[in-house]
Specification:
With about 400 residues, the protein is α/β, with parallel strands linked by helices. It has one domain. Strands 1, 2, 3, 4, 7, 8, 9, 10, 11, 12 and 13 form an eleven-stranded mixed β-sheet that branches. Strands 5-6 form a two-stranded antiparallel ribbon. Strand 8 and strand 9 form a beta hairpin. Helix 2 packs across helix 4. The longest helix is centred in the middle third of the chain and has 14 residues. It starts with 19 loop residues before the first helix and ends in a 5-residue tail after the last helix.
């Protein structure tokens, strides 16, 4: 069951919202997912019969060219940040900074690979404005550590290091930037129904009072789409799952869209998301998640006539609406129907209300990824390889 978007009183600081309640939800959710097919499985492609229904989820949409003001406006579309974050709470914000370690020239923001700093700055400030005790902006990326000063705004006028210091000085709460691999105090073992058994997840995420995911819109050659749900691969331990390198695919089974989705959905199940904001300013189409994989930059100002932000307190609904903007059928996206089976949110279009725009006015052509989930092209032979690797590393399987 999802938490309400507004609590009568802020939760006690002595008891984390992520304790045994979330573990119990995991036990129930683990039994809810049935077989969803093999490599490249598209799942149920025929929508359920259209009948008049009352929406159970809503997604806010805002168009414009100023990402700061757009962020504040889209938060109002979902009831304002005060409906999510309360005084004294800790907030973890997860952007997609997959190529930030190589961002010396700032191109990773202009080519659509990473979440725009403007959105992160505005969101963090809104959280601090309503009394958050601390806002942590963090990612695991593909290197143990990286320079957050390379996260520059699109106009080059400032960066996240400067802005985090400014926010910490202007508000009672603190804003800090973390490289999860080296800055996480601990790694919590989130239960997993996969061959992994548990997934080592940063305690900065699992123990935060509120979690906000801010992905950039991209297609993905192993996951179909990488949005708010897929974003949580980056909160897992690089040292444990990358085998000494920078690719968690060494331990995470990518042999099907289902197999990789099971992993990041287990993480989300153990560290529930309170808010999702999807960055539709500049993204990636085709064989993402990066241009080096064969992805191509999409600037929505050229394709839509403006930039776009989507927001929802239902991370699955936000991803499903984003899929439709990208002209993808949500019923064909493996991670979406799996997420609903786990009770993580709603993906069916007829149950999702779009606030602030008409979908017909937002949809654009967006080339899908060509999936690479064939075992022969993967660096391992599925879960048996991963299990053997874990055994060889000295970890119990």
């Amino acid at each position: 069951m999802r938490r309400p978007t507004e609590d009568p009183e802020p939760p006690s600081r002595e008891i984390s919202r992520r304790d045994f309640v979330r573990l119990s939800a995991m036990a129930v959710g683990s039994a809810a997912v049935g077989g969803c097919g093999g490599a490249g499985s598209q799942g149920p492609t025929t929508p359920e019969p259209e009948v008049p229904v009352d929406p159970t989820a809503s997604v806010g949409a805002v168009r414009g060219t100023d990402l700061y003001s757009m962020t504040r406006e889209v938060l109002e579309r979902v009831g304002g940040i005060e409906s999510v974050v309360h005084e004294g709470e800790t907030v973890f914000i997860k952007p997609n900074m997959v190529t930030l370690p190589w961002a010396s020239n700032g191109s990773v923001f202009h080519n659509g690979e990473c979440t725009k700093p403007e959105i992160l700055i505005a969101t963090a400030e809104e959280c601090l404005r309503v009394g958050a005790a601390e806002v942590v902006i963090g990612d695991g990326s593909q290197m143990a550590s990286f320079d957050w000063a390379e996260a520059t705004t699109l106009d080059g006028s400032t960066n996240l290091v400067v802005e985090a210091a400014r926010l910490s000085s202007e508000y009672a709460g603190n804003c800090r930037l973390v490289c999860l691999e080296v800055d996480s105090p601990e790694w919590d073992e989130v239960p997993s129904r996969t061959y992994l058994g548990t997934i080592a997840t940063s305690s900065l995420v699992t123990r935060a009072d509120r979690v906000i995911t801010i992905p950039v819109a991209k297609t993905h050659c192993w996951a179909q789409l990488t949005l708010g749900l897929k974003n949580f691969v980056g909160v897992t331990s690089l040292a444990r799952y990358a085998g000494g390198g920078n690719d968690r695919g060494v331990m995470f089974d990518h042999s099907s869209t289902r197999s990789i989705a099971e992993i990041y959905l287990d993480v989300v199940n153990g560290a529930p998301v309170d808010l999702s904001i999807v960055d539709f300013s500049i993204g990636i189409e085709g064989d993402g998640p990066t241009t080096s994989h064969g992805g191509r930059t999409v600037n929505m100002r050229s394709r839509l006539g403006s930039w776009l932000l989507l927001a929802s307190t239902d991370v699955v609904a936000a991803d499903a609406m984003a899929a439709q903007v990208m002209s993808h059928n949500p019923h064909s996206i493996t991670q979406l129907y799996m997420a609903r089976s786990l009770g993580l949110g709603e993906y069916r279009p007829e149950y999702i209300e779009l606030v602030g725009a008409d979908l017909d006015d937002l949809q654009v052509a967006w080339a899908p990824a060509v999936l690479r989930n064939r075992i022969a092209s993967c660096p391992f032979s599925g879960p048996h390889y991963a299990a053997r690797s874990l055994k060889n590393s000295g970890r119990a399987v």
